[in-house]
Amino acid sequence: MKGCGTLPGLYDDFPTPLMTAPRQPEYRIDPQFTERWSPRAFTGEALDKGSLMTCLEAARWAPSGNNLQPWRFVYGLRGTPAFEQLLGTLVESNRVWARQAGALVLVLSRTQRLVPGKEGPQPIASHAFDAGAAWMSLALQAQALGLHAHAMGGFDKARAREVLAVPDDHALHAVVALGRRGEASLLPEALREREQPNGRLPLSALVAEGKFSFEG
């Protein structure tokens, strides 16, 4: 993973991910950000628990408002009942390829907390923001291990809440497929052409100085 902006030796021991198309940033950034993407083709290999826990350990150290750490994760390793439970919550268009992942992880966040001097649970305003930071940490650590992570919003939240016994005061955000990338030929024909890194909007469409001045 050597490239522009990389500290000498920092990524020398990490495998270089297989890329299908280049991504060109407008400014020099560490290549981990452009090399991370979300494939759908996985090899079907089971993910060892140590690798999964390494990714979740990275998520544990994500930044958090007031250090409340509201993120939570429910996982299932391929070949276990927990994996099948999580797989069963996905919409069919995701289930058809995610069944080949090495692990599935549900990303949640605690939405309330008890505050001394306050009556009843108080909302955690940053719970979703913090969970997003934790997910990105997980994804980048997976990339560093030579794995890939694909987060999916297409799942039945009510079913997931029921079968996984998720309390009402926790929000469900995404199910993440983790594993080793496989060949696009493993996918249904309709998905094969999409099996490449996406581009991004130009920075000028996302950043403004001083005031909100975006179109669309």
Q: Which regions have little confidence, pLDDT < 50, spanning 5+ residues?
A: 1-21
| Number of helical segments with 4 or more residues | 7
CATH architecture of the domain at 38-186: 3-Layer(aba) Sandwich
- For the biggest β-sheet, the strand order reads 1-2-6-5
Average pLDDT number:
90
Question: Which class do the helix and strand fractions yield?
Answer: alpha+beta
Taking all Cα atoms into account, the compactness measure Rg is 19 Å
* Shape label: globular
Give the N-terminus to C-terminus distance in angstroms.
36 Å
Q: What's the β-strand tally?
A: 6
Q: How much of the sequence is in beta strands?
A: 15-25%
CATH domain topology of the domain at 38-186: NADH Oxidase
CATH superfamily (homologous) name of the domain at 38-186: NADH Oxidase
Helical content class? 25-40%
Task: Tell me what the structure shows.
Strand 3 and strand 4 form a beta hairpin. The chain has a domain at 38-186: NADH Oxidase. It has a 4-stranded antiparallel beta sheet, sandwiched between helices. It has helices at residues 32-35, 49-60, 81-87, 92-98, 127-144, 157-163, 189-192, and strands spanning 71-77, 103-110, 112-113, 122-123, 148-152, 170-179. Helix 2 (49-60) crosses helix 5 (127-144). It has 7 helices and 6 strands, in the order H-H-E-H-H-E-E-E-H-E-H-E-H. Helices cover 27% and strands 16% of the residues. It is α+β, with helices and mostly antiparallel strands and 216 residues long. The protein starts with 31 loop residues before the first helix and ends in a 24-residue tail after the last helix. The protein is globular and about 60 Å long. The model is unreliable at 1-21 (pLDDT under 50).
